[in-house]
């Protein structure tokens, strides 16, 4: 049985610093996440597109999805699943507000959290 991995909350950005429907790159050690302001909530995923590593934080936000700025794959920000363009999945990170900061949870070691949403086949029923 594996040891439970420790989760660390990381101050990613001051509350109010990311305009609505925009993303920001957040660096944690050698790892980068993309943090998005969706208006009523913040969501975070790995910043590397599952296609060829495009910077998802620079993509166009539509609903709870982001379109990669390089080749326009559509990535769901809740599941991390690619909904169009091809097949793939990025890690998703828990986000919460702590003391006026938007905080992201990373596992100790900086490699991020495994997808809590589960495999894409089970979570991407809303594929268009
Ligand atoms: S690198 Fe993102 S769609 Fe190609």
Structure explained in plain terms:
By secondary structure, this protein is mainly beta. It has a single domain, classed as Rieske Iron-sulfur Protein. The protein is 3% helix and 41% strand. The protein contains one helix and eleven strands, in the order E-E-E-E-E-E-E-E-E-E-E-H. It has one helix at 120-123, and strands at residues 7-14, 22-28, 31-37, 42-46, 60-62, 65-67, 74-76, 82-84, 92-93, 95-98, 101-107. The strands form three sheets. The protein has a four-stranded antiparallel sheet, with no helix packed on it. A four-stranded antiparallel sheet has the order 5-6-7-8, with no helix packed on it. The N and C termini lie far apart (39 Å). The model is unreliable at 109-128 (pLDDT under 50). Residues 49, 51-54, 68, 70-73, 85 line the site of FE2/S2 (inorganic) cluster.
Task: Compile the SSE list and pairings.
Elements: E1 7-14, E2 22-28, E3 31-37, E4 42-46, E5 60-62, E6 65-67, E7 74-76, E8 82-84, E9 92-93, E10 95-98, E11 101-107, H1 120-123
Antiparallel strand pairs: 1-11, 2-3, 3-4, 4-9, 5-6, 6-7, 7-8, 10-11
The structure holds FE2/S2 (inorganic) cluster.
Please give a quick description of this structure.
The protein is mainly β.
Mean pLDDT: 83
Which CATH architecture? 3-layer Sandwich
Query: Could you name the CATH class?
Result: Mainly Beta
CATH superfamily: Rieske [2Fe-2S] iron-sulphur domain
Integer count of domains: 1
Ligands in the model, by name, code or SMILES, are: FE2/S2 (inorganic) cluster
Q: For the CA atoms, what is the radius of gyration?
A: 14 Å
Name the helicity range: under 10%
Structural class: mainly beta
In the predicted model, the low-confidence regions spanning at least 5 consecutive residues are: 109-128
User: What would you call the shape?
Assistant: globular
Beta-strand content bin: 35-45%
Largest sheet: 4 strands, antiparallel
End-to-end separation: 39 Å
Order of helices and strands: EEEEEEEEEEEH
Number of strands: 11
The DSSP helix count reads 1
In which order are the strands of the major sheet placed? 2-3-4-9
CATH topology: Rieske Iron-sulfur Protein
């Amino acid at each position: 049985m594996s040891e439970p991995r420790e989760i660390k909350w990381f101050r990613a950005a001051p509350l109010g610093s990311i305009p609505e429907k925009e993303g920001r790159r957040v660096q944690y050690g050698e790892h980068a996440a993309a943090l998005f302001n969706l208006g009523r909530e913040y969501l975070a995923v790995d910043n590397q597109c599952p296609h060829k590593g495009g910077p998802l934080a620079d993509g166009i936000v539509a609903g709870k999805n982001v379109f990669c700025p390089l080749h326009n794959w559509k990535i769901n920000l809740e599941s991390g699943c690619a909904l169009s363009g091809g097949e793939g999945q990025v890690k998703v990170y828990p986000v919460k507000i702590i003391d006026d900061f938007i905080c992201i949870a990373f596992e100790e070691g900086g490699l991020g959290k495994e997808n809590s949403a589960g495999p894409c086949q089970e979570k991407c029923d809303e594929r268009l």
